[in-house]
User: What shape does this take?
Amino acid sequence: MEKKFVYDKETAVVETSRGKVRGYMYDDMYIFKGIPYAKAKRFHAPEPADPWEDVFQAISYGYVCPLLDQPMPGPGELMVPHRYWAMGEDCLNLNIWSPGLDGEKRPVMVWLHGGGFFAGSSIEQIAYEGENMCKLGQVVVVSVNHRLNVLGYCDLSPFGEEYANSGNAGTDDLVAALQWLHDNVEKFGGDPENVIVFGQSGGGAKVTTLLQTPAADGLFAKGINMSGVIGPTLGDSKGNGEKLVHALMEELHLDDVKGLETVPFDALAAAYNKVKPDLEKAGEYVGGTPIPNAFYKGDPNVHGFRKETEHVPLMVGSVFGEFGSFAPTPYDRTKMTVEDGIRYVEEEVGKEESKELIELFRKAYPERNPVDIMTMDFIFRTPEIPYIQARSKCSGGTWAYLFNLDMNFDGGRTPWHCADIPYFFHNTELAAYTQEAGVTERVEKLIFDSVMAFAKTGNPQNPEVPEWPACTPEKEYTLVIGKETAVRENFDHELIPVLGKCMGPVYARNMEKRMKDVQH
Assistant: This one.
C-alpha cells in the first residue's frame, strides 16, 4: 500500500506555548522531531525555551546529550541494534508521533530511554521508533532527550544555592518535558490527563525516580517500568559532591567552581573519567545517579513510595536472562537433555550446593532445561520482588510480568536485557533477532495489546492474555510471557534468593566478557 507523505506550510503546523512548529505527515501520522521543551545552563535548573518568531522546523532529531566515552560498535549490535546521533549540550528536546492534530484526547506514551543515568538517547536503539505504536495503537508517542552523566547528575550543592539540585538536573529536565507536554500535547491530539511514562533499564529507573519527585505530581497518570529495578547498580548517590568537584577543579587547573560551567565538555568528561575511579574506590560520591534531597525523595525500596502517587497504576517487569544472556555459552543448550543440564550446573556450582537450586528452578520453570540456570537473572529480579510488594501495599494497580521468550539467535538464546523492547513498540520488524515463524507475531500482539489496554484503561487485561490480577503484598501474579504464556503466583520467590547465593561467584566471573561488546 502506498504511504502518503506531505510536507508543506499548512499540513503539520502546531502553535505551541513558545511558537509554531512544523513537522510532516507520513503514512497518516503527524511527526515532529527535535522540539525544544526547555533550555538550561550547565549544572542549573531548566528554564522555558526561548520563544521563536519564525516557524520551528521540527523535521530532524535534535542534539542528544554528550557521552563520557566514545561509543564503540561491536558484535553486540545484532542483539541490541543501535544508532548514534549528533551530540551537544543543547539537548533538551523531544519527538512526537501523532495519529491526528484534531483535538481528540488520546493516551500519550512518553518514552524514557535506557543507558542508566549516564548514557543513551531518545533515538539510540532502532526499536525506539514511534511510528508503529502511534499508528496501530492510536496513541501519541513522545521520546525525550535530557541531560545525563556529569551534566545531569553531578552535585555541586556545597558550592552555592544556585547548584542546589544539580545532582538531579537530568530528572529536573524530565519534569520540564512533562510540564511542556501538559501545556501543549492537546494540540498534538493527546490527553494531558492521560500521560503514561514508560522506559527500560535506566528508563525504567527514571519512571521510579519521577514517582519519587513531587514536582512531577499531576504530570503523568500511569507508568511502565521495564527492567528498571536494578538495586545498587542504579542506586541513589550518597554523600555530596564536594570532593568530586574539588578533584575536577584540580585536574582542570581551575580556581573557581564557575569554571566548570564553561570548560569544554571533552575536557570535563576526561577529567571526570580520570578522577572517578579513586573516589569510587574510597567510597566517595561520584554522581551519575539521582541524589536524595528536597527535590527527590529517594529509592522507594529504602524510603518507601510516596503516598501522593498511590493513584498511579504501574506495570513492572524484567527479562529472564537480562545481562546473563549477552554472551555465547560454552555449551549447546539445543542438544542438551535435562540430565545433561543438571550435570552441567552441578559441575559449575557444586553438586551439593546446587541441589536445592535445581529443585526450585524446575518448580518455577518446568518448561526449561536446568542449564538455563547459568544465564538466569537475579540482579534485577532480587530487588524487583520487594519493589512490587511495596508498590502493591500503597496501590491497587500494580501488575507484574516476566519476558521469558527465548530468541532464535545463535541456535537459541535465553532472552537478554533489551530483547523485549521491540515487542512493546510493535517494532519486531526492525530487529532481526526477533524473527521466528508462528511465534513473533503472536507474542508481539500479546505484549502490545497489553500495553495499549493499560494506557487506555489503567489495567493491562485484554483478550490476548489469561486472567491477570493486580498484585497484592502477599501475592505477585506474574504474567510469564513465552511461547506459552501463563500467570504464575509467587512462582520464583523461593528460587531467587538461592539463585543469588549459588550463582553470585559464577556470575561475577562471567560478567566482564558478557558485557564488553554490548551497548544497552
